[in-house]
Amino acid sequence: MSIYLDYNATTPLRPEVWEAMEAVERGTALQTNPSSTHKAGLAAAKTVKEAKASVASHLGAEPDEVVFTGGGSEAINLAIKGRVWDAGPKGAHVITSAVEHHAGLHACLWLQSQGVEVSVLPVGMDGRLDPASVEEALQPETCLVSLMHVNNEIGTIQPVAEVGRICRDRGVAFHVDAVQALGKVPVNVQDIGCDLLSISAHKLYGPKGTGALYVRRGTEIQPLIHGGRQEGGLRAGTQNVAGIAGMAEAVRLAEGEREEFWQRAWAHRERLHRLPEELNAVRFNGSAEHQVPHCVSVTFLFCDAMGLATNLSMRGIYVSTGSACSSGDVTPSHVLKAIGLSDQAAFGTLRFSTGRTTTEEELEKAVEATKEIVDMLREVTMPEDIGVCDEDCPCFLTV
Amino acid sequence: MSEAARVRILLVSAPKGCKKCAACEAMIERMRSKHGEALEFAKITSEDPEAAELGVVMPPMVLVDDLLIAAGKVPREDKLDAMVNKRLSGE
């Protein structure tokens, strides 16, 4: 038995996407390097061009405003670092939030280590940023505001359109990390009013290692990767044509199914939200009003989520915890800490994220297994032991 | 007990040089002295195929029947003993 409830981490490739990718690599017409001027190269260039037009149409953008990258993290780094480097890093100021994905947050913190001033704005207990805090933080030197549209851990939807208006009024570039938003909520760069927007294929049943950055005409950024003139000079390197074709197909399908998925995900969410009626000391994280339904962050107090997730994994049920174990050091999720959870509560938090093929039966089995395991683990867990590892903890991960 | 109840404790130990693994083993041996044959004890290392089947391997790992109760740490002896007693009494 295998019940996958970690769709926010990644999604399996869907058959139609495989077909689109296979058509590139194994189709009757040879497709090679899009930069080559022979027929096989031109065929590949055509595929990239069509994919670009397709992705752009779903974002409300023009085709030449789409830059294909090697993934969402790369797109985010290109947006943030590229904008700062173009503005002139000396004296530059960037604004971001405390609940950004590590790709955005660590890019900003790295820039900070290089002398760029970075304002990391707090959020409320629901994970939502107050747009007024962006307005207060703006300075004459601010060259970029970077904000994620939908939070990957707790599912909060940020007020990106309001922040977009503020940035436009003040003439400051605005980057939106839409990696977890596209295919889940409406994403239109004109409605948001952003200048840069990052997306990722593998969150949409597309291939890993493929993403895109929307760059509004007139927005100046420097490339991360120098070399050839691919992607308008913003991302050197021979394009991953099969991946790009797969991404375009994944985006097309996800956008076409978005509304139906939203409805189904709400039903799944309602089942998970009955947990407090069936189990003690359970709380939910995120926003009641501004929330994607498929991402449910649950704190099981007096329980170690790593132990809970591992037990579920042993039963073939796959979810995510909010903490990471690195070199024997367990650290709580920065997102959960930012919304005010204690370390203990953070270490007791699981994320369930449902997908397009999740069934009610699967969810019911996962819920029942979770309840059973939580009850048993609470028998043997002392609160002060949650999330504690000694310095010499030998930590191995098997493939 | 209508028929002899048994509880199985599986310890996944690091291949060598793990102080916490040794502490876990010593604790489980104390419990075996107390519960006798009702407590079945098996020990494998993190390099055994059975350990890989568990998914994430963080020795010491202590499983009581099919429940992983501790990973990367030594469980509380009183809590573990209470769980074993509960299972042996059929609760």
Account of the 3D structure:
The complex is a heterodimer of chains A (399) and B (91). Helices cover 40% and strands 16% of the residues of chain A. By secondary structure, chain A is α/β, with parallel strands linked by helices. In chain A, strand 6 (173-177), helix 7 and strand 7 (196-200) form a beta-alpha-beta unit. Chain A is built from 13 helices and 16 strands. The two termini of chain A are 18 Å apart. In chain B, strands 2-1-4-5 form a 4-stranded mixed β-sheet. In chain B, helix 1 links the parallel strand 1 and strand 2. The model of chain B has no long low-confidence stretch (mean pLDDT 88). With 91 residues, chain B is an alpha+beta fold. Chain B has a single domain, classed as 3-Layer(aba) Sandwich (Glutaredoxin), CATH 3.40.30.10. Chain B has 3 helices and 5 strands, in the order βαβαβββα. Classes of the chains: A alpha/beta (399), B alpha+beta (91). At the A-B interface, helix 10, helix 13 and strand 16 of A face strand 3, strand 5 and helix 3 of B. Strand 16 (396-397) of chain A pairs antiparallel with strand 3 (56-57) of chain B.
